């Protein structure tokens, strides 16, 4: 590998991390916004509008940049599998938020990096060194500690219902999404892959929500709900889908999903900005654990044994050669 290629690759990796920080911040805003509008419209209809609007807004750029040609059956199958993971997650989130608390869903969502790591190990043959194996559960502990504001009694009193079960299934679907992006990518432009993932997702949702679309009293829907759908479509769907898919091929799906550990801290920060109460100081230890776990997962070679690092590099090269 030439010196110029190494520098270019390092630049792509840095951009991947910076974009993931931005996307993680956007995702954090979707939880309070989703909870605010989910009771105003059927969850399937809401998710369909989110995907359809994102695809429509992205279509002019894709047409100008790459041209829009109907993909082959094989390509459509790849995009449809990816979109099925996303549809499962977002439908599960909106459905769960009708009965489950934001606290419960945030706790369950903290399991995503572990699920992603397991799927990546099976599908992509990615190996984690011992430091990363410790960091994954440590990140979960830190995230849960922050979510429950450092109160063990609140954690012990956690009650799970059917909505939490639905969201857990959606979380599993999201755990498959990152590894499948890397597995299914065939070198096409990421913008093109993102667009057809959105389109196929909108088709899935149109089929599922068609009977309910006729039941919606569109004029009775508050204007704030339409504003929320527009925000979710552009910033937490279109932008984050592109960033997640591009970054998964550059820094790897496990590293991409490990940024979800930062969500509890970002949600708290958003709540403070919106004027809600400041959380207790007891959460600081959880925040430190989250940041440490995220750092280890992003920079595993700084904490690994040289022999482990050699095996990790070999595994990556073997996967890349397939």
Write the layout of secondary structure elements.
Elements: H1 3-37, H2 43-65, H3 73-96, H4 102-109, H5 112-123, H6 130-147, H7 152-156, H8 162-184, H9 190-213, H10 223-250, H11 253-258, H12 263-273, H13 284-298, H14 306-320
Helix pairs in contact: 1-10, 1-12, 2-3, 2-9, 2-10, 3-8, 3-9, 4-8, 5-8, 6-13, 8-10, 9-10
Briefly summarize what is shown.
With 322 residues, this protein is mainly α. The chain has 14 helices and no strands. The protein has one domain (22-320).
Describe the fold and architecture.
- The protein has 322 residues and is mostly helical.
- The chain has 14 helices and no strands.
- It has one domain.
- The chain is 77% helix and 0% strand.
- Helix 2 packs across helix 10 (223-250), helix 5 (112-123) runs parallel beside helix 8 (162-184) and helix 9 (190-213) packs antiparallel against helix 10 (223-250).
- The longest helix is centred in the first third of the chain and has 35 residues, at 3-37.
What are the defining features of this structure?
322 residues; globular; 14 helices; disordered C terminus; mainly alpha
What count of structural domains? 1
Strand content: under 5%
Structural class: mainly alpha
Rounded mean pLDDT is: 83
Structural shape: globular
> Helicity range of the residues?
over 70%
Uncertain segments of ≥5 residues (pLDDT<50)? 306-322
Q: What is the straight-line distance between the termini?
A: 18 Å
Q: Radius of gyration, Cα only, in angstroms?
A: 20 Å
Number of helices: 14
Major pleated sheet: none
Count of distinct strands: 0
């Amino acid at each position: 590998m030439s010196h110029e290629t190494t520098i270019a690759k390092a630049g792509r990796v840095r951009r991947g991390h910076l974009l993931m920080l931005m996307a993680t911040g956007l995702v954090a805003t979707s939880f309070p916004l989703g909870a605010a509008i989910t009771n105003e419209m059927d969850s399937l209809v809401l998710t369909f509008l989110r995907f359809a609007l994102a695809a429509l807004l992205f279509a002019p750029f894709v047409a100008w940049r790459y041209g829009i040609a109907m993909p082959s059956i094989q390509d459509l199958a790849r995009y449809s599998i990816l979109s099925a993971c996303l549809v499962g997650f977002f439908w599960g989130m909106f459905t769960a938020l009708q009965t489950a608390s934001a606290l419960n869903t945030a706790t369950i969502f903290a399991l995503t990096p572990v699920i992603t790591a397991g799927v990546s190990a099976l599908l992509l043959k990615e190996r984690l060194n011992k430091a990363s194996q410790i960091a994954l559960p440590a990140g979960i502990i830190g995230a849960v500690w922050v979510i429950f504001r450092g109160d063990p009694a609140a954690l012990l009193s956690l009650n799970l219902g059917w909505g939490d079960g639905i969201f857990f299934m959606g979380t599993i679907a999201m755990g498959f999404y990152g590894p499948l992006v890397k597995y299914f990518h065939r070198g096409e432009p990421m913008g093109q892959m993102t667009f057809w993932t959105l389109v196929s997702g909108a088709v899935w949702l149109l089929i599922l929500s068609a009977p309910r679309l006729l039941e919606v009293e569109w004029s009775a829907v508050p204007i704030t709900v339409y504003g929320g759908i527009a925000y979710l479509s552009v910033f937490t769907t279109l932008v984050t889908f592109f960033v997640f898919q591009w970054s998964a091929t550059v820094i790897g799906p496990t590293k991409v999903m490990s940024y979800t550990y930062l969500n509890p801290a970002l949600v708290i920060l958003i709540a403070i900005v919106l004027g809600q109460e400041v959380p207790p100081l007891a959460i600081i230890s959880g925040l430190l654990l989250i940041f440490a776990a995220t750092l280890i997962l992003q920079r595993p070679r700084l904490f690994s044994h040289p022999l482990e690092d050699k095996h990790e590099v070999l595994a990556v090269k073997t996967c890349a050669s397939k």
